[in-house]
Design goal:
2% strand, mainly alpha
């Protein structure tokens, strides 16, 4: 059977859970412990082969998403393997740009009419838009995310901002927009450096174990 098809069928039976709880033998893991499992590492939410920036962003999003939305993170697990490639500075730049061009205008109900040329050029524009934020906490998180030099911390604050905006959304449609945006961001972060990553990153014995776990879960169900 094709590897991608085997993986898809196995992942369909995995249940993503919030927090660091979970049990690989039962097929219940958070997104980053699933990455560690597939990569052949010990049970952990800090897999060595994953980008620290992606870890920070994905962990917080995973922990605060609604259950059904969280399950959409499963296909990213194989893509995150191998992202500890020294390209987090590029990922941080891409993340800052998304915050300015997509998240911030949505939060304000406004739209930027011209693209942001560079991260360095964002800050004067940010100063003009930040006062539109109605709450101090989003303002603070945005300011820290855009000015933080540590890529991992920056991603954590960006995820906290999106989480806060989703949970304080005025209706279900608005909340869904922010969670979809978070998934889109994770997709972009995984794309950076993807052509350089070796295939496959999944350990064969772990895939077989996941398939057996999936069969067991299906039998119990």
């Amino acid at each position: 059977m094709d590897l991608n098809l085997r993986l898809q069928r196995a992942l369909d039976r995995v249940e993503l859970v919030s927090g660091s709880i979970g049990n690989p033998s039962q097929g219940r893991m958070c997104i980053m412990s699933l990455v560690a499992f597939l990569a052949g590492e010990d049970h952990s939410d800090s897999p060595r082969r994953a980008s620290p920036l992606i870890q920070a962003f994905a962990i917080r999003i995973n922990d605060h998403m609604p259950y059904s939305m969280r399950q959409r993170l499963k296909p990213f697990a194989p893509r995150i393997i191998g992202t500890n490639d020294g390209l987090d500075r590029m990922r941080a730049q891409a993340l800052r740009q998304v915050l300015v061009e997509e998240i911030l205008p949505r939060a304000h109900g406004q739209h930027l009419t011209e693209p942001v040329a560079s991260v360095r050029g964002m800050f004067p524009r940010i100063q003009r838009f930040c006062h539109w934020l109605r709450k101090d906490e989003p303002h603070r998180l945005l300011d820290i995310a855009l000015s933080c030099d540590n890529e991992r911390n920056m991603a954590n604050y960006a995820a906290r901002l999106i989480t806060l905006l989703a949970k304080s959304a005025s209706d279900a449609r608005e909340e869904e927009w922010y969670w979809n945006a978070a998934i889109g961001i994770l997709d972009r972060l995984c794309d950076i450096g993807a052509p350089l990553q070796r295939e496959p990153g999944i350990q064969a014995e772990r895939l077989a174990q996941l398939e057996n776990t999936a069969r067991s879960r299906q039998g119990v169900a």
